[in-house]
Amino acid sequence: MKMKLQDHMLVPKHEVLNKEEAEELLRSLGVKKEQLPKIKATDPIAKEIGAKVGDIVKITRESLTAGKSVAYRLVI
Amino acid sequence: MIPKRINAIKFEVLSPHEIRRMSVGKIITPETYDDDGFPIEAGLMDPKLGVIDPGLRCKTCGGKAGECPGHFGHIELVAPVIHVGYAKLIAKILNAVCRECGRILLKDEKRDKFIDEIENRKRLGQDFEDIVKEVFRITKAVKKCPHCGEEQIEIKFEKPTFYYEGEHRLTPKDVRERLEKIPNDDILAFGMDYRAVRPEWMVLTVFPVPPVTVRPSIILESGQRSEDDLTHKLVDIIRINQRFLENKEAGAPQLILEDLWELLQYHVTTYLDNEVSGIPPARHRSGRPLKTLAQRLKGKEGRFRGSLSGKRVNFSARTVISPDPNLSINEVGVPQVIAEELTVPLFVTEKNIDIAREFILRTEHPKANYVIREDGKRIRVLDANREEIAEMLEPGWIVERQLMDGDVVLFNRQPSLHRMSIMAHYVRVLPYKTFRLNPAVCPPYNADFDGDEMNLHVPQSLEAQAEAKILMSVQEHILSPRFGGPIIGGIHDHISGLYLLTRGVKKFTKEEVMSILKPLNIEELPEPKEDGYWTGKQIFSCILPDITIEFKAEICQGCEECKKENCEYDAYVVIRNGELISGTIDEKAVGAFKGIIIDEITRKYGNEETKRFIDNMTQLAIRAIMNAGFSFGIDDEDIPEEAINQIREVIANAEKEVEKLINAYKESNLEPMPGRSLEETLEMRIMRELGRARDQAGKIAGRFLGMDNSAVIMAVSGARGSMLNLTQMAACIGQQSVRGERIKRGYTYTNRTLSHFKPGDLGAKARGFVKSSYKEGLSPIEYFFHAMGGREGLVDTAVRTSQSGYLQRRLINALQDLKVEYDGTVREQTSGMLVQFRYGEDGIDAMKSFRGKAVDVKRIVAEVLNKE
Ligand SMILES: [Mg+2]
Ligand SMILES: [Zn+2]
Ligand SMILES: [Zn+2]
Ligand SMILES: [Zn+2]
Q: What DSSP character marks residue B28?
């Protein structure tokens, strides 16, 4: 049996943005996809959530200072 | 014109063909000038190589000195020599190719796979170093050529430029021949582009001679010419090259030729890099090592770090600093001689032309040094032309007037580790020769006055001056972005002074109050207490703005239950509506780094008011400490006989206890602590025992010294020093350690630290416990152990500073182009790459935070409650 990475308390929540969400994100940030931070498609968490190259992953972390912090990564 | 931009830079290796093509002539003679002082043709100073003497014209391009960029010449080497810079790479390549057929030691399919991967990485703009490394690793292990079947012999590289195949030494000629045989397609597998680099080019057959503009000669005062180090080295190369040629043509024995060849190799190597390991550096007649090509580029003073990344600046000054508590924190005292040298440009308009003229006509201090005409010509203002210039002056000119009171300047102390290392100050021109600053700004600069020097820069445009005033002023940096608290505040005597003033109920007569408050511009005295006297707390309240705050002072003993206002140590500070009700003002209240009052004033009233408070506070504190009288000397550590006896007893008991532990250990009666060996347990328990003994000794000393002792006052108020320092001075220095352990190094065979002890002695004395105090003095043995511990501390700091310095440099280089945009994201400037989606995750400017937290809920609640 393999444990789901997402179930581990130290692994933050990762989710793949759908097309509309991705476009909206890029529009609001005013950046091109390539200007986002990256995550490898071979990253275990990317594989687990089924992220494909070109997708944008939304990562929601618990932050000591900010409570919740959101980051996005382009899958390469 | 469309500005040209450099898109990319590609580095290649010069081919012999290229070297000859760019050369304006062959250099064959080592002589430079003839007897009449004219440069010799085909010599190293051949006028074809460019001009450096003003007035002469270049024989190649016809340009004057300054116009002519200089031109390369070349030397035809009699025999090839290895280029040191590529020696290591040559060795790798030799091991990667067949010694017979020159093919790469890989099957073609495998080679192509590597080449494809390299091309792929190149296309993506990624690093391909690791693939090349892998190619070299695999090919080195191949024993037999897959192409011709030849057995391979590993080539051993010996620094700096020698190659051995088994016992047989390869000459540069052999090396070059092997490299020549490598086909172009194989070269790609080494990550090299054969159009840019043919491997045999790394073995020199032709040698470029740099233009004279690169190695100008200087004329000494004696009229003698002194040549550049590079020229000296080139002379050596040509001389040996010529001699080699003559010998070769005369058919000299092989042994002599080999010696000359090696000598030629030595000169070429040291010409390129005079600090290679394995050979002695070439030296000047005086014994100074020559500065050759690599030395020009390398290191802090080299071309990159010294000339390109860092430059010397105009309108700056540097001198020793000293304190002046009468200056405001945002002022700097500038010596008159410096103020007369530095200038501020005054841009002349119709409105200020009269003022500008006045500066020109003045004959002393704030006068004009230069004027700059509209056409950019700079004219020195002298007694002779003063009136004439004033007459001619018109709008559009610039008058460079001397620095004067009220000018804004940037003040800096290295190492500039954080933004507070460069702050804007207002000038006060003062006599004498040091920069003066208020001691309250020592913490941000990390300055003291034991000989520290600081730099000063005068902003030269109105924009720069405005920026300095608005963004860089000292008062803008009272709160540090490092921890969101004040970094500017009281130090040393400021804290002792206020402690003495405000502790308990001190009574002051009207005269005393007036004298203390004299410099503070206070218009009304508060009402005296019923007995007609004023208290220190009242005096301090005079400088407080309307704030309400409660906190525990530095001197708080940490009682189990805090009695707040009724604290018997007067350690609970209560300020209500700008009135100090109870408590003692100390480091926690007004100190740099801690200063809660400073913090509170900044948050409530802003920087300007805080600046005023710090100015007043430092003045008041200094008056107060002078009024009380404060001194510190060796006999302040005197403790009575009774105390000495008590301390001796404590230490004797501890030593006995240690003996007991050691005996228990030897008799195997010691109970090991969980997870520890018996030895570790013993060490830990001994350390604990001795540590406790020292603490106890310190307590005894502290008790006898009393709270009125100057050193105790400084230690408890947080002004300077600690109770530990005091303990060591008055009672007992304690255990010395190396690497966190008791001292155990020394005579390893007999397991003792010094020959004064029995082998295997584990006792306190034998392992670096110092029972003396600094005042008593140490015994020779104690002194030795103390020096061991002290040395470790010195080494640690030296290592730490150099390491953290390099770490900081790397961090700065990596982060310098990041910027927080208006939308709160952090982006890299040139590529627009997103680095953080919100600055620091929470989007908080640490400088405007409350000690790192976004909001200080407690303060807001207290404020709201107070209003009702
Ligand atoms: Mg110093
Ligand atoms: Zn020229
Ligand atoms: Zn072969
Ligand atoms: Zn208390």
A: -
Instruction: Give residue B616's pLDDT.
Output: 93
User: B834 and A66: CB-CB below 8 Å?
Assistant: no
Closest CB from A29, A37, A66 relative to B841: A66
- Angle B462-B466-B467 from CA coordinates, rounded to 5°: 120
Instruction: Give pLDDT tens digits for B95-120.
Output: 999 988 888 888 888 889 999 999 88
Please, is B497 exposed, middle or buried when counting C-beta atoms within 10 Å of its C-beta (0-12, 13-18, 19+)? buried
The CATH-assigned architecture of domain B316-477 is: Beta Barrel (2.40)
DSSP, collapsed to helix, strand or coil, labels residue B819 as strand
Confidence of residue B84 (pLDDT cuts 50, 70, 90): very high
Burial B736-745 (b: 16+ CB within 10 A, else e): bbbeeebbbe
CATH of domain B24-71+210-304: 4.10.860.120
ipTM of the modeled complex: 0.94
> Which residue, B776, B687, B704, B772, is CA-closest to B733?
B772
pLDDT digit string, tens, across residues B467-493:
999 999 999 999 999 888 999 999 999
Of B827, B837, B854, the CB nearest to A71: B837
Residue B191 makes CB contacts below 8 A (sequence gap 6+) with B118, B128, B129, B131, B132, B135
**A69 reaches B (C-beta below 8 A):** yes
- Distance, C-alpha B601 to centroid of its chain: 34
- Cα separation, A66 vs A60, in Å, equals 12
Higher pLDDT among residues B851 and B319, named by residue: B319
Answer yes or no: is pLDDT of B1 > 70: no
Partner B contacted by A37 (CB < 8 A): yes
| Band of residue B748 on the pLDDT scale cut at 50, 70, 90 | confident
- At B190, the amino acid letter reads F
Using DSSP's 3-state secondary structure scheme, residue B374 falls into coil
Average pLDDT, integer, range B421-428: 96
Beta carbons of A63 and B841 less than 8 Å apart? yes
d(CA B226, CA B698): 67
pLDDT in tens, B789-798: 999 989 988 8
How far apart, in Å, do the first and last CA atoms of chain A sit? Answer: 28
CATH superfamily of B634-788: RNA polymerase Rpb1 funnel domain (1.10.132.30)
Q: How far apart are CA B550 and CA B565, in angstroms?
A: 9
Pick the CATH number of B492-628 from 3.40.390.10, 1.10.287.610, 1.10.274.100, 3.90.220.20: 1.10.274.100
| Reported pTM | 0.74
The first and second tokens of residue B369, run together, are: 């040094």
Chain A residue at shortest CA distance from B827: A35
Interior CA angle at B51 toward B49 and B56, to 5°? 130
Alpha carbon dihedral B116, B120, B122, B128, in 10-degree steps, equals -70
Note the ligand closest to the C-alpha atom of B321.
1
pLDDT (tens digit, 9 = 90+) per residue, B569-628? Answer: 888 899 988 899 999 999 999 998 889 999 999 988 999 999 999 999 999 999 999 999
Q: Where are the domains of chain B?
A: 24-71+210-304, 83-203, 316-477, 492-628, 634-788
Task: Give distance in angstroms: CA of B131 to centre of ligand 3.
Answer: 23
Q: How does pLDDT run across B355-379, given as a tens digit for each residue?
A: 999 999 999 889 999 999 999 899 9
Q: Does B825 touch chain A (CB under 8 A)?
A: yes
Query: Structure tokens of B868?
Result: 């009702």
Mind listing the domains of chain A with CATH numbers?
Answer: 5-75 (3.90.940.20)
pLDDT digits (tens, 9 = 90+) for B429-469: 999 999 999 999 999 999 999 999 999 999 999 999 999 99
Dihedrals phi, psi of B803, to nearest 5 degrees: -65, -45
